[in-house]
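Hi both,

Apologies for the delay on this - the queue was longer than expected. I finally got the adenosine-5'-triphosphate-bound model through. Below you'll find the protein sequence and the ligand SMILES exactly as submitted, and right after that the structure tokens for the full complex including the ligand.
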Amino acid sequence: MKPILDVKGLTRIHGTECPSCLDMTGPEHNTNVCPACGSVVAAANVSFSLQPGEILGIMGESGSGKSTVVKTLYFDQAPSRGSAIFRDDDQSHELFNLNGAEQRWLRNHRFGMVYQNPNLGLNFGISAGGNIAERLLMNDLNHYGDIRRRASELLTRTDVMVSRMDESPKQFSGGMQQRVQIAKALATRPPLLYLDEVTTGLDLSVQARILDLILEIQHELGTAMIVVTHDLGVIRLLASRTLVMKYGRVIESGLTDQILEDPQQAYTQQLVASTL
Ligand SMILES: Nc1ncnc2c1ncn2[C@@H]1O[C@H](COP(=O)(O)OP(=O)(O)OP(=O)(O)O)[C@@H](O)[C@H]1O
């Protein structure tokens, strides 16, 4: 089976960029800030592939570049360079060569994103059902009754009480807001979902329910996912393969079980040891 996503050499540098940026940053220099020009190397030469239906984890401490990877793939940020091929049915899209309209189409129809901060993924000015309806309307579902039925189905699927669908998600708990974000992201049945620290800051029991929901969705819908987290427990539960990032670089990658049982890099060994 061909990967649904092939990322090669993804690099994102904030600042003017100079010839030293890549040589003088990274784990061996203990910084992602270029000492010559002050640019921030958020991600450098990140490469990986993702199979249809697979969950790939991206792990690393704060500032290591995890979010940068998914933000560029979801078109929240432009990369400085690199390529990303998204295979959808029989079509291949080179994500970083698309024009704005093509990017918006993929974002609205074929990708889903769940952010750590529900403010970024939800419109608090409208109801929970309205948030889902927005996405359904983009997918040419425009009959009021059909939209309401589908929104109810999605909220039921994600364990949000349908009786609250006309309330603003602002009034919901953090866990409920995340579940509405997931319902919204799933509205278009996207083959690829990005999850950026979706359980960070939630109570452990709430986290566990959301992680279970994510696994159920993967099993039922066969959705491929990239899960960004600093939490090894999340990686252990969800991801079959994992990338470990530090100072914008991928320092270790492979099967999650192998990485957790026999980490090769000192940094990963420390991360694993700290959670034992
Ligand atoms: N707009 C920006 N301008 C300058 N630097 C930025 C900008 N956005 C991100 N960065 C820097 O890029 C680096 C990578 O950020 P990124 O958000 O990808 O890290 P992360 O691993 O996801 O961390 P966190 O979990 O804290 O979000 C960080 O050093 C961050 O400060």
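Main takeaway for now: Residues 14, 32, 40, 42, 60, 62-68, 230 surround adenosine-5'-triphosphate (CB under 6 Å).

I'll put the files on the shared drive as well.

H.
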